[in-house]
Design a protein that fits this description.
mainly beta; six-stranded antiparallel beta sheet; 3 helices; 14% helix
């Protein structure tokens, strides 16, 4: 496997091998969805120990070798590897009993003083 963002095949190998490389992952439901020869997205979730869940959404550009957009949400719930709901169900904000711990997104937040330094206005 080369650099994960070099080709779609490299990124697929990267995401599908995560559970083998990180023993803290109890189950992964990540899926790569191609959107043309040089673009794709990843959606799904990863279950870690202590019922910690990471919901993932990434928009990938292999032509530039970048993740163009993303959304990550970390939460805790009483799901288990054997009773893990589909990602599209669990990753909704309204999933019952889910305690959202924190989240990250690639959207600019120029009006939030804490995040303003991460925003660059185009001139």
């Amino acid at each position: 496997m080369g650099h994960p963002l070099a080709t779609p095949a490299d990124y697929e190998a990267f995401i599908y091998s995560l559970p083998e490389r990180y023993t803290s992952i109890e189950r992964s439901l990540l899926v790569y969805i191609p959107q043309g020869a040089m673009f794709g997205r990843v959606v799904g979730l990863i279950l870690f120990a202590h019922h910690v869940v990471l919901c993932v959404q990434e928009f990938l550009n292999f032509e530039l070798g970048v993740i163009e957009g993303y959304g990550y949400e970390v939460s805790r719930s009483h799901v288990t590897p054997d009773h893990l709901p589909p990602a599209e169900e669990y990753c909704r904000p309204s999933y019952p009993g889910k305690e959202k711990l924190y989240w990250y997104d690639s959207f600019p937040h120029p009006d939030d003083p804490v995040l303003a330094s991460t925003f660059q206005r185009r001139t």
